[in-house]
Amino acid sequence: MKPLVFITGASSGIGRALAARYHAAGFRLALVARRGAETEAWAREQGWPEADWRVLPADVADIDSITAAGQRCLAEVGLPDVVIANAGISVGVDTADAADLAVIARTFATNNVGMAATFQPFVSAMRARGSGRLVGVASVAGIRGLPGHGAYCASKAGVISYLESLRGELRGSGVKVVTVVPGYVDTPLTRGNRYGMPFLMSPEDFADRAFVAIRAGVSYRVIPWPMGVAAKLLRLLPNAVFDRLLAGRPRKRRQGE
């Protein structure tokens, strides 16, 4: 039987590109998306045999919803070889505005709790089998905090640390934990940005490189690599220099802007 990949956030952007890349590599697809009907229509447009894919509608920010999707995958499709927790949101925030506290809570519910809830149904079964890939999509925005982008930066920093912890927990089990760290990818999530995006890449290019990294079972990979070098240099800057460098930088659009 063909191997199986479970992908969240499969309705657009990186998730959709990863689905296409994995199908091209001979995988069956379990695709999780809030917009289930839209995702099913897209899969049919690709001309793929219906035996090769299944759409599992779910909201990653809702623990019961996403864990139920995982349990349904196990019961109806099988135990995945690869689970990719890709779903995420990115909205600018201003801590002085009380309304943005709800945005921060929703960001963490989706990007952090949602990632753990995506993996949870599969961890024990993968450990018992002695193989598998648990893949979390982080961001270079998690390496340093950007003004006006506190919710997203903090959530992605949390993703990086969470995956590092999970990797240690599963060491020696045969289950690999892979942290994929995108730079700027041309998706609906980034198109509204009001600032320059160096090394901007297409979702398809990103998916090709991520597929290679995941297949190799690397623990951590920044894509593209020049963005990783830039991020490491930013991490080394003294705070005073970093703060001056970002002074006046346009901020992420807030909800409703």
Description:
The protein has a single domain (4-246), classed as 3-Layer(aba) Sandwich (Rossmann fold). Helices cover 47% and strands 15% of the residues. The chain has eight helices and seven strands. Strands 3-2-1-4-5-6-7 form a seven-stranded parallel beta sheet, with helices on both faces. The termini are far apart. The mean pLDDT is 91.
* Range of helix content: 40-55%
Secondary-structure-derived class: alpha/beta
CATH superfamily: NAD(P)-binding Rossmann-like Domain
State the distance separating the first and last CA atoms. Answer: 48 Å
- By CATH, the topology is Rossmann fold
β-strand amount: 5-15%
Biggest beta-sheet profile: 7 strands, parallel
Please write the CATH class name: Alpha Beta
Spatial strand sequence of the major β-sheet: 3-2-1-4-5-6-7
Low-confidence stretches: none
Fold blueprint:
Blueprint: E1 4-8, H1 13-24, E2 28-33, H2 36-45, E3 53-57, H3 63-76, E4 82-85, H4 100-129, E5 132-137, H5 150-169, E6 175-182, H6 203-216, E7 220-223, H7 225-236, H8 239-246
Parallel strand pairs: 1-2, 1-4, 2-3, 4-5, 5-6, 6-7
Helix pairs in contact: 1-6, 3-4, 4-5
Could you list some keywords that capture this structure?
257 residues; alpha/beta; Rossmann fold; 7-stranded parallel sheet; 8 helices; 7 strands
Quick structural summary:
It contains eight helices and seven strands, in the order βαβαβαβαβαβαβαα. It has 257 residues and is of the alpha/beta class.
